[in-house]
Amino acid sequence: xxxxxxxxxxxxxxxxxxxxxxxxxxxxxxxxxxxxxxxxxxxxxxxxxxxxxxxxxxxxxxxxxxxxxxxxxxxxxxxxxxxxxxxxxxxxxxxxxxxxxxxxxxxxxxxxxxxxxxxxxxxxxxxxxxxxxxxxxxxxxxxxxxxxxxxxxxxxxxxxxxxxxxxxxxxxxxxxxxxxxxxxxxxxxxxxxxxxxxxxxxxxxxxxxxxxxxxxxxxxxxxxxxxxxxxxxxxxxxxxxxxxxxxxxxxxxxxxxxxxxxxxxxxxxxxxxxxxxxxxxxxxxxxxxxxxxxxxxxxxxxxxxxxxxxxxxxxxxxxxxxxxxxxxxxxxxxxxxxxxxxxxxxxxxxxxxxxxxxxxxxxxxxxxxxxxxxxxxxxxxxxxxxxxxxxxxxxxxxxxxxxxxxxxxxxxxxxxxxxxxxxxxxxxxxxxxxxx
Length: 436
Description:
CATH class of the largest domain: Alpha Beta
Structural class: alpha/beta
Shape: elongated
Helix content: 25-40%
CATH superfamily of the largest domain: P-loop containing nucleotide triphosphate hydrolases
Radius of gyration: 22 Å
CATH topology of the largest domain: Rossmann fold
Distance between the termini: 27 Å
Strand content: 25-35%
Number of domains: 2
């Protein structure tokens, strides 16, 4: 197995994504074969990881939502023909689901990998040692092996920080100044997608240069540890929707987990891809269509005007083709989508729902999910784990008899029925990650 390390931080916003991207680009342009993983349910960071890592796919590792067998299968798939696995954490090192499970620390402990802690050093000096000491000693099964200092203000500031951390015998691998040209733009669900970033390579090279100037390579190599040898029965998180699955993929529908698509392929399904934004309809020979989440609200007018797409989806439904939509895909299947300015746009009309961004309400968190009716994903009673993250609302209530799932949050609190099904078409706001 290749070597690996986990990049974590005390809190979100510390700079761990930028440091991860800088390291991936730096090693990749030196000819190292590096595979990136992202902890948790994040879709967007993974696309940046792929761009930074010479086009190698980034895989999600979710210690809350994935069974051990699935986690092992994802690691084995990602670790093939690679030298180093770089795993970016999520939120703060010990932050997980609402019930406390599934943190970056849990994953690091499970994989017995060291943590490189990215510390936002702005507005502190000697106190950094107390913070790092607390993170290092909080759990005996988590090894914080080194620190990267971010947003260092001056050489004097760096000296104070290094002196304090030397007092607790904590290696400092780099002290990085704040740089205004190494900042990624964001929107309501997180970063602007990598495919929409015009100067992505310029940004990544700048970030790599920024890290290269101060990175202690010997220290980095010394903390890398081998990934554990994991056994897996095979990658099969969800049953395939069909034998030939047409998958929507473009700027509006980019939120498809690589492990799910690879799992469908591993179970014998053929995948083809189409762009709802660019006048494409799903392949008429497909016996299933998957519409993942994304940003349809940013392209609602263009989607509504795409007759090829809408007719293709309606014709597929008439043929009783299985059509499954998650979040943004669920919105596309409804009657209308109202954008943030209050303009309603006609959608495919295959489900009796309408969604709106005019009165935004955030829904965020892990979900425990039970199927209320049989679908292509399994019989009634099938159980899954997943995630929900959106700002739109469903206007009106779905007939409870037509709901797809019953959902609970990570603490077990009942969230009620969700989603809608009609004929061979079904969907919900939930992003499924694995079966239970």
